[in-house]
Predict the structure.
Amino acid sequence: MDQFNNDELDAASAMSYNEYLLLLEDEGYSEEDLNVINMNKEGAALLEDCLFVKRSWAEENPELLARFLRATIKGWQYAAENIDEAAEIVYNAGDGSSTLEHQKAMTEKVIDLVIPEGSDASQIGSLDKDKIQQTIDLGYGAGLIKEKINIEDSIDDSYWNEAVK
């Protein structure tokens, strides 16, 4: 965000849970100072931070994959219930490029993404096929994906289903 702060850019891409917060916390901007274009509301959001596993590995290690997912889900559930502690753990493991206060603010925002409005902690890690399809469609429309992808052939949520039993 340095170039944005130095008036070298008029627009910048920022994560709602990090750079945007830095503008509000450290740079003296108010929410009214910034025109935020929410890619979700515009129908242009792309999924990120996904877990990809080779089908062959998953088929050879279904119990391990389910246990990994179960542990990950439990970790996010714990973090959602203990935001201050979760933020402190991440802060202490970090490189000192953030403050504890910023880490707490980021943790709160990330939890809002992990457990979106209208959802609850039991849905952490579940697949939103509409958002996956949107990502595919946007990628295909931009020429980043060369052929149409059938998500039913590409996505297997049986491991998640096993993890949340």
Summary: The chain has a mean pLDDT of 92. Residues 66 and 158 are 9 Å apart (CA to CA). The two ends are 43 Å apart (CA to CA). The longest helix spans residues 62-81.
